[in-house]
Write a structure and sequence with these properties.
The protein is mainly beta and about 400 residues long. The protein folds into two domains: about 110 residues; about 290 residues, no CATH class. A hairpin with a 2-residue loop joins strand 3 and strand 4. It is elongated, with a radius of gyration of 29 Å.
């Protein structure tokens, strides 16, 4: 005869067995879900890589529309690709999604900078004179009249060789720029739409969100205590003053003239018609771009001025379509460092000493001393192509530099 207590034991054991069985089934279920999710994300990572490779191919043309692809034609793996112009660079976005899982990435692309020249000086039938501690490290594209040593204020050239690199002849014109890019940038100066900047101190717009355009109208061309980041374009109808406490990251700025206060730090693309003045001891990080685009029939001298002791990582550029009497000017004050490129369709004015790690393109140089103004003289100037990082990428604006796109900067 079975005791009553045995029944309780059987029931308890049965419950325990059932609980263990349910637990094992639950663990197996969630393990399977986790494995499926892991496999989906591995597949999404692979698809993201495939999408990025498509965007990086030279034949993938930038447009204002998104391109949606079914990767394997099975209705499961989808890619959404976007490639548009972002100033002088390309903005790329890629999304990979399957069911409710999504991975996305955005990045800027630029061109490999394979040019080993430190200097391109247009041939205007006059030599380039070197004096003091000037150094040209890298190849040179120079007038047929070449280089020569010169005495300035009783001081001669200190080096043993005039250039540490090969020399080849330049032409009368500078390397061509991409005119469609110039035209697309110029259209922003006549753009009339846009919202006022929000009252708060920070605006951060993801590059996966639609473009936000802010327009400063009338006499409101002043920025203070603002943080502007991401997929933003800022337009001003009048001279735009940017305070040192303003933070700009990855945005584009358009104004007739831009004045940046001393000590400013940021990374952005600046475009003006008349002038860009960057205050002393400012730092514009890589990849920054500053350009004055002189309008046709402009009557003033469009110029960029980089203030004393400033650091600029990227490209300084002045442009005019037809040579005028008041040619464009890029003025770089003493103790400045530029890592990248300086391109002037007119003059480049140096105030010694200055260092450029990269390449300089100019029609003519100007050096100002307390006593005299010298043309096509370099005095205590260092032009060093070999010190530029091998990871530096150029913009797509200079046509000679247009190569297969490479990732310039990861965004959000």
């Amino acid at each position: 005869m079975v005791k009553a207590a045995a029944l309780y034991i059987v029931i308890i054991v049965s419950i325990l067995v059932a609980m263990i069985s349910v637990s094992l089934l639950t663990v197996a279920f969630y393990y399977r879900l986790g494995q499926q999710k892991k496999l989906r994300f591995e597949r999404l990572h692979y698809n993201i890589t495939s999408g990025m490779n498509l965007l990086l191919s030279k034949n993938y043309i930038a447009s204002d529309t998104l391109n949606r692809l079914d990767v394997y034609g099975e209705g499961k793996d989808s890619l959404e690709l976007g490639k548009t112009k972002w100033g002088v660079f390309d903005l790329n976005t890629v999304k990979a999604f399957e069911q409710t899982d999504t991975l996305k990435q955005s990045f800027l692309t630029g061109s490999l900078f394979e040019d080993q020249s430190a200097l391109y000086l247009a041939d205007e039938d006059r030599p380039l004179s070197l004096s003091g501690s000037t150094q040209i490290i890298g190849n040179g594209e120079l007038p047929k009249s070449g280089l020569k040593q010169a005495y300035v204020d009783g001081k001669g050239y200190e080096g043993k060789e005039l250039i540490k690199g090969k020399i080849k002849d330049s032409s009368r014109a500078l390397p061509a720029l991409d005119q469609p890019i110039i035209d697309s940038l110029s259209r922003w100066f006549i753009h009339k739409e846009g919202l006022p900047i929000p009252a708060g101190d920070s605006v951060n717009n993801s590059f996966f969100e639609p473009l936000k355009v802010y327009h400063l109208k009338g006499g409101k061309g002043r920025l203070d205590n603002k943080i502007l980041k991401g997929h933003l374009v800022l337009i001003s109808d009048s001279i735009l003053s940017i305070g040192r406490d303003v933070q700009l990251q990855d945005i584009q700025v358009f104004a007739p003239a831009i004045l940046i206060e001393e000590g400013f730090k940021g990374t952005c693309q600046l475009f003006a018609r008349d002038s860009i003045i960057i205050g002393k001891h400012s730092v514009l990080g890589y990849p920054s771009f500053a350009a004055v685009l002189k309008p046709e029939k402009g009557t003033s001298q469009s110029k960029i001025k980089l203030g004393e002791g400033s650091r600029f990582y990227g490209t300084l550029l002045s442009y005019e379509k037809e040579r005028s009497e008041l040619q464009t000017l890029i003025s770089i004050d003493k103790n400045c460092l530029v890592k990248g490129e300086v391109y002037a369709t007119g003059y480049i004015k140096f105030e010694k000493p200055v260092r450029v790690q990269g390449k300089v393109y100019a029609k003519r140089f100007i050096m100002q001393t307390p006593a005299t103004l010298y043309e096509n003289y370099l005095i205590d100037i260092s032009l060093d192509r070999k010190s530029l990082s091998r990871y530096y990428l150029s913009s797509f604006l200079i046509k000679a530099n247009q190569t297969t796109p490479q990732i310039l900067k990861w965004l959000n």
